[in-house]
């Protein structure tokens, strides 16, 4: 029978260290939090080789007396709490008294500190958790400097798990951003290998900080939010509906200045945007929650990133109703170009211009939706999703019909455009948006208007075999076949065609063709996203996307696969980035990863439900279907073509 033994202290400490210190960014987070707790007004962070060689943090906080230095690096030693009750009213970042000890356990650490009024400072060197000598005097100004070298030198497995330098530094800059955004009164400087990455002087508010960290264009798309519930105040910014991500990476929640991850808050945010974002897109948010520390338990996880609210419903409701009220209050027409229906044509945005009457309809919807039920906690009615299918929503006796004129998904052209568009290729043009802002250009070659396109009887859209085709509800195509009839799901079919094409190209050449863009597109990202993008430049190139560093966290997209021309290069780039970030964490098999990328790209670039197709587009779609498709299913497994034989029809009508 195995014997039970008490573990040696150094092993206990290493186990504890493993929980708190996962990678270099965890060290940065813990040391900077200590500096903030010490009341620092300037914090300088120097990193060498993404933290594996050196992490140095200097602050001008209250400092420590020499005799305190050894205690500071001892497990369960803290100046922040002293009795059990304190645990239930935590006002500081730290309280567990383990961070410095954990860092010291797995590195070579030097603490230099000088307390207020002291003649000189003191220095303590620790290696693998053991002090090398007594604290020695050193000259320095008030404050503390902590140097961490050779992280994980004595835990080689941890070191082996570290990712590339770009990814690790991405995590570090993300950690700094999470600390800098809510602590706007503190000057933060982050340097990597001697080069300044961030210099964030004290700022007037959060938006200024976000602007410096994420870029002014990104910050300009943020909507201020103020919300109040019983015992809780929420303030900050949320993104316009056209500023989205394919994951939660740009959702920053701060609880009393502490960055937290919280599923229920993420859910509230998604609910608040319901109907305004397409499936798989997530809103951007920077929200600060202020509440009495006794109402929340932060002692849930060693990294303190997860917390437990005593009354999470209140926070949920305050956030949801706060955002809804803001959407109600604000003038929807002042939204940026791609507007409420967001995402470049995906939801039929009429070239970005939002019909004022429609905006009013949306306001009415919000009013109905948030209605008398307490703080809008009830789930929205199914037709809250009308935004996704505007045509369907405003017809068939909808109660909005009287208030809102018929919705026309596409802008009418000032100058009539002949069917097929000026000089466009039937298919290329039919499925590709015209140049941005081109008058009368309509996504996917949608028909400009009935008057302009009133085709003579003999010019009805036809299949390649010459059978008439009808598009119904801008979603399905119906036509006669030799043995019966076919019903096509236009999105599923086009997605399938694109998928087959790009998969074949990828299989044959190991990459997708790339086309140089005339005007490269800068895309502003979070530090974590930027790091992932640059780390995966080669993978992007394999998918025909050329993404290069453009200063700070901005990446310049200068090439994209012409085969996916319907969607914007930036959209495809963000889509692929989202997959790489998610699957990178899961260490996905390359084959799976590549297939997911191909599937998502095909889905994004395909015509959508709700896209009105020109006759030539229908014909070309069906022609390509004949050529390309061996299966009747879209890459997601949904059928794309239903075939009904005359016999089956007769059976259904009980003729036989
Ligand atoms: N930069 C600093 N300036 C002043 N005092 C510091 C600084 N860093 C650490 N200390 C002191 O060292 C103690 C131990 O720090 P450590 O980070 O290990 O624990 P903690 O912050 O109390 O709790 P936690 O483990 O939750 O972070 C702190 O309580 C604080 O008194
Ligand atoms: Mg601490």
Give structural notes.
It is built from 21 helices and 25 strands. It is α+β, with helices and mostly antiparallel strands and 656 residues long. Among the domains are: 9-202, Heat Shock Protein 90; 211-334, Ribosomal Protein S5, domain 2 (2-Layer Sandwich); 514-560 and 567-605, MutL, C-terminal domain, regulatory subdomain (Ribosomal Protein S8, Chain: A, domain 1). The strands form six sheets. Strands 1, 2, 3, 4, 5, 6, 7, 8 and 9 form a nine-stranded mixed beta sheet that branches. A five-stranded mixed beta sheet has the order 10-11-16-13-14. A hairpin with a 3-residue loop joins strand 20 and strand 21. The chain is elongated, with a radius of gyration of 29 Å. The protein binds adenosine-5'-triphosphate and magnesium ion. Adenosine-5'-triphosphate binds at residues 30, 34-35, 38, 59, 61-64, 72, 78-80, 94-101, 144.
How many strands?
A: 25
Q: What is the CATH architecture term of the domain at 9-202?
A: 2-Layer Sandwich
What is the overall number of helices? 21
Q: Which geometry do the CA atoms define? A: elongated
Q: Determine the N-to-C terminus distance.
A: 77 Å
The CATH topology name of the domain at 9-202 reads Heat Shock Protein 90
Question: Any idea what the CATH superfamily of the domain at 9-202 is called?
Answer: Histidine kinase-like ATPase, C-terminal domain
Structural class: alpha+beta
**What small molecules does the structure contain?**
adenosine-5'-triphosphate, magnesium ion
Global Rg: 29 Å
- The averaged pLDDT comes out at 78
- Uncertain stretches of 5 or more adjacent residues: 332-359, 365-457
Share of helix, binned: 25-40%
């Amino acid at each position: 029978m195995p014997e039970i033994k008490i573990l040696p202290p150094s092993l206990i400490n290493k186990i504890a260290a493993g929980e708190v210190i996962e990678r270099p960014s965890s060290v940065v987070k813990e040391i900077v939090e200590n500096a903030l707790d010490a009341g620092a007004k300037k914090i300088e962070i120097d990193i060498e080789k993404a933290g594996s060689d050196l992490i140095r943090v200097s602050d001008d906080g209250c400092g420590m007396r020499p005799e305190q230095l050894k205690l500071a690096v001892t497990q369960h030693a803290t100046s922040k709490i002293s009795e059990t009750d304190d645990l239930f009213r935590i006002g500081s970042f730290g309280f567990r008294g383990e961070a410095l000890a954990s860092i010291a356990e797995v590195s070579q650490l030097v603490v230099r500190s000088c307390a207020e009024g002291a003649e000189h400072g003191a220095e303590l060197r620790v290696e693998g958790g053991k002090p090398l000598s007594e604290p020695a005097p050193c000259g320095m100004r008030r404050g503390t400097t902590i140097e961490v070298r050779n992280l994980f030198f004595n835990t080689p497995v941890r070191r082996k798990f570290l990712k590339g330098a770009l990814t690790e530094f991405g995590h570090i800059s993300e950690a700094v951003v999470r600390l800098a955004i809510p602590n706007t009164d503190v000057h933060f400087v982050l340097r990597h290998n001697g080069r300044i990455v961030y210099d964030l002087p004290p700022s007037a508010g959060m938006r200024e900080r976000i602007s410096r960290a994420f870029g002014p264009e990104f910050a300009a798309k943020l909507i201020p939010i103020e919300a109040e519930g019983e015992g809780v105040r929420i303030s900050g910014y949320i993104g316009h509906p056209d500023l989205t991500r394919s994951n939660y990476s740009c959702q920053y929640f701060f609880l009393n200045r502490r960055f937290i991850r919280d599923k229920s808050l993420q859910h509230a945010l998604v609910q608040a945007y319901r109907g305004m974002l397409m499936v798989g897109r997530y809103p951007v948010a920077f929200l600060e929650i202020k509440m009495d520390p006794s109402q929340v338990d932060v002692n849930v996880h060693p990294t303190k990133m997860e917390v437990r609210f005593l009354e999470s419903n209140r926070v949920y409701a305050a956030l949801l109703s706060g955002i809804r009220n803001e959407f109600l209050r604000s003038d929807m027409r002042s939204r940026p170009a791609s507007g409420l229906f967001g995402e470049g044509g995906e939801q039929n945005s009429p070239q970005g211009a939002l019909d004022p009457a429609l905006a009013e309809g949306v306001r009415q919807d919000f009013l109905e939706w948030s209605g008398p039920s307490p703080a809008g906690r009830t789930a929205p009615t199914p037709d809250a999703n009308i935004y996704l299918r505007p045509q369907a929503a405003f017809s068939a006796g909808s109660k909005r019909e009287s208030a809102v004129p018929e919705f026309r998904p596409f802008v009418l052209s000032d100058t009539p455009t002949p069917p097929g568009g000026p000089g466009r290729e039937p298919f290329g043009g039919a499925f590709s948006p015209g140049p941005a802002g081109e008058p009368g250009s309509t996504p996917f070659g949608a028909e400009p208007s009935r008057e302009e396109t009133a085709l003579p009887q003999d010019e009805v859209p036809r299949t390649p075999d010459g059978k008439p085709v009808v598009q119904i509800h801008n979603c399905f195509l119906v036509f006669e076949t030799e043995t019966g009839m076919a019903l096509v799901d236009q999105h599923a079919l086009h997605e399938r065609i694109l998928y087959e094409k790009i998969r074949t190209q990828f299989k044959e050449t190991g990459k997708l063709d790339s086309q140089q863009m005339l005007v490269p597109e800068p895309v502003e990202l979070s530090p974590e996203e930027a790091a992932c993008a640059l780390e995966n430049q080669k993978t992007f190139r394999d998918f025909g996307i050329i993404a290069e560093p453009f200063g700070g966290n901005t990446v310049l997209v200068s090439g994209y696969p012409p085969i996916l021309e319907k969607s914007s290069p930036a959209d495809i780039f963000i889509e692929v980035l989202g997959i790489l970030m998610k699957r990178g964490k899961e260490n996905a098999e390359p084959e799976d990863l590549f297939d997911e990328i191909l599937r998502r790209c095909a889905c994004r670039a395909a015509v959508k439900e709700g896209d009105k197709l020109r006759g030539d587009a229908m014909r070309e779609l069906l022609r390509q279907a004949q050529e390309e498709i061996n299966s009747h299913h879209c890459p997601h497994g949904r059928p794309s073509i239903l075939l009904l034989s005359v016999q089956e029809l007769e059976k259904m009508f009980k003729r036989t």
